[in-house]
Sequence to fold (253 residues):
Amino acid sequence: MDIKILIAAHKHYWMPDEPVYLPLHVGAEGKPNLGYTKDNTGDNISAKNANFCELTGLYWAWKNLEADYIGLVHYRRYFTRREVRDVRFKKEQILHAEEWEKLLSEHSVVVADKRKYYIETNRSHYNHAHPSIGLDETERIIDEKYPEYSEAFTTVMNRTWAHMFNMFVMRRDLFDAYCQWMFAVLFELEKRLDISSFDAYNARVFGFVSELLLDVWLEKNQIACKEQNVSFMEPQNWIKKGGLFLKRKFFGK
Fold:
């Protein structure tokens, strides 16, 4: 079983020493060499990284990488067995190659555990964090060009949970089908959306929108998936994160 899980990175960082993981320099075009595989070789969109985030790595894998299963994690965020509080032991929980082989022999798609918003829908959460035009225009594109996905889009937007971070591992045929649809939607969105007034954070709009498109695609195609714990490798300030969430929700900041 040939498994390749990209580790999206834009700087030097600790990397797990496992054959299934492939450190990938995303947005490598025009940047100093980090010594990792770069996403600006072959058929690529590396130069779009400021707006597409880790998706430049996914596009590179779709067009250039051969494997039976392809997935993506982040240099500070991994699929793990379980959550532990002590950052020193988080690395020990990252899934090994043998564990991935067992998981993928039983499940064709593995995604991150649900991120639950409780008092927010996916749509309201997005709109409190980003300009709503990104999601509104995406909905118009789906209604016009992919109407068979419209019901799934509405279902996902009304949920209070989502599989986030663009983290997943998929069987190759499913990965190809997902990328074909997802990038077609986003490239159309890129044509229609004027982001000249967006700040650097919100200019990453295509990456933000894509996080929700994964669930739309899974819902429409009724693809069963295995949810797996995700761990962030550094300490997190939950009080600060909670405060920012409430500011976005009630004050639009």
Notes: Residues 172-192 form the longest helix (21 residues). Confidence is low (pLDDT under 50) at residues 238-243. The chain has ten helices and eleven strands. The first strand starts at residue 3 and ends at 9.
